[in-house]
Amino acid sequence: MIFALVSLILFLVLLIVALRVSLSKNKPEEEIAPAMIHASGIYSIVRKSPREIISKVKPTGEEIRKYLATVNVDIGKLPLLPADRSKLLNFWHQTLNENIQEIERGDKEGVEFYYYDFSRDCPVCTPHISKGQFVTREEIFENPSIIPPFHIGCTCKICAHHGKENLRDTTELGMRPLFNKGTPPSLPEWTTTVKLS
Questions:
Q1: Alpha-carbon span 132 to 171, nearest angstrom
Q2: How far from chain centre, in Å, is Cα 148?
């Protein structure tokens, strides 16, 4: 009788262990993989690549292509030829991808601040964003629309800041926050077109 009871208990324990192992194998990988945590500011957020949500805030390639088909001149009244339209569309995709890659690299390195820079002066972005203005990773997470490009032909880029100082406490290089008291800035209309060179 005691042997039967011990055997039954041992059988139940093995059955429970087998069920747990079986259930853990059926979990999707995303549930098992540990999340990368970003700890800056007062609270923490889970770092997710902007690729997951950028299509909700930026126009698609097809939207840009259709819009450019209706535009004959840029804001400076320079004519847009078919080759210019193709170049502008490719430039949009290239710069958007480069900016997302910069953020993804920064996530791997634990970067907390990013600043804006320009490969050349941009008459469209100047009233909205200045070289050296910065944002936190949390602000990017909450407002993916602040990832360049902002308009067709935009030369603005976002750069990871690898310094140790808190950018909110420095005036070096004229760096100041992009957000004014937590309020997102107004950004250029994406349809504003500047011909490349």
A1: 10
A2: 9
